[in-house]
Design brief:
With 326 residues, the chain is an alpha/beta fold. It has a domain at 147-324. The protein contains nine helices and six strands; from the N terminus they run αααβααβαβααβββα. Strands 1, 2, 3, 4, 5 and 6 form a six-stranded mixed beta sheet that branches. Helix 1 packs across helix 2 and helix 6 (187-199) crosses helix 9 (317-324). The longest helix is centred in the first third of the chain and has 31 residues, at 63-93.
């Protein structure tokens, strides 16, 4: 391509032209950028409404009014932008409300245990029937009595023997302090109690069954020799006292007595065989209900020195056993 002289200076010199200075390019502000975007959006909506089918009240038929309201729309957008930029730092600077921890519940005070004696009757009555448990009464276990000795002495009563201490020194000084004395029991009660004691507990299979030994003091001899133990005399009590001392010494030394023994002692009327029209050599004993002869119990299971006033219960002898033996 050939050079031309159109760009030469007027004097015709061939110097090249100086650098061309361009005007600085001004970047529109954020405000105008937002306004321009809004305007373009509005024009695009209006053009789309004009091209496509739209209701009669669309913006396509009201372009002049849209041009008048466009500055107001731009101003509203700018105001919202300023408000949003001012609110954001404020929200960031606002500290979050402190979470107040809920107070822990106060510990429940532990009530001191109320002793059973401090319980009032009213409180016990308010208890529901379902909470009250009635326990059956524990059945007392009787000792294993395997050998019972029933001794019948010739004489009046234990009351008479206690009243004549000189005539019955062993009964007053040894028997009564070591055993249980039942002054209101009769001689008949003594035999029933002795028999019941052997039947209280059923024997174990293969073991020796309980035994009841009956011992009767020999009667006074006939004639002049019998004056030493004549009925209702102090000598009768002395003879019974000496017989009892000798008999108990032989029984209490046995292991069967020390482990499972019981001795039942009472007074009876011992007669001579010939006087009762019985064969010679035989003897008789009559047990009376009244007056009560009294009964003495001697056993490892009897209470020493006890004088209970309870009467013998013939309908339930076991109750008498449970009260007297331990």
């Amino acid at each position: 391509m050939e050079p031309t002289t159109d760009n030469l200076p007027p004097d015709g010199s061939a110097e090249p032209p100086g650098p061309v200075r361009l005007a600085p390019v001004r970047i529109p502000s954020r405000r105008w950028t937002a306004a321009l975007a809004a305007a373009m959006l509005g024009i695009g909506v209006a053009a789309g409404a004009a091209i496509g089918p739209a209701p009669a009240a669309s913006l396509a038929g009201d372009i002049p009014s849209l041009a008048k309201e466009l500055p107001l729309l731009i101003a509203g957008l700018e105001a919202k932008h300023r408000a949003s930029t001012a609110t954001a730092p404020a929200k960031a600077a606002t500290p979050s409300p402190a979470v107040t921890p809920e107070p822990s519940p106060a510990p429940t005070p532990v009530k001191a245990a109320t002793p059973a004696s401090a319980t009032t009757p009213a409180a016990s009555e308010e208890a529901s029937p379902t909470e009250t448990t009635t326990k059956p009464a524990a059945t007392k276990k009787l000792p294993a009595i395997t050998n019972v000795w029933l001794i019948e002495l010739a004489g009046p009563t234990f009351t008479a023997a206690l009243a004549q201490k000189a005539a019955a020194p062993y009964i007053n000084g040894s028997l009564v302090p070591a055993g249980t004395l039942l002054g209101s029991w009769s001689a008949v009660d003594a035999t029933a109690f002795a028999a019941e004691a052997t039947l209280a507990e059923p024997p174990v299979a293969g073991a020796v069954p309980p035994l009841l030994h009956s011992i009767v003091q020999p009667p006074c001899p006939e004639g002049a020799a019998g004056a030493a133990c004549a009925p209702e005399t102090p000598s009768q009590l002395t003879a019974a006292d000496e017989f009892l001392k000798t008999t108990l010494a032989s029984i209490t030394s046995l292991s069967t007595y020390k482990e499972h023994g019981l001795i039942v002692i009472t007074f009876a009327t011992v007669g001579i065989a010939t006087q009762s029209e019985l064969p010679a050599g035989a003897s008789t004993s009559t047990l009376a209900y009244q007056p009560p002869a009294g009964v003495a119990l001697l056993s490892p299971f009897a209470k020493a020195g006890a004088h209970p006033s309870s009467a013998f219960n013939p309908t339930s002898p076991r109750q008498s056993l449970e009260k007297l033996l331990h």
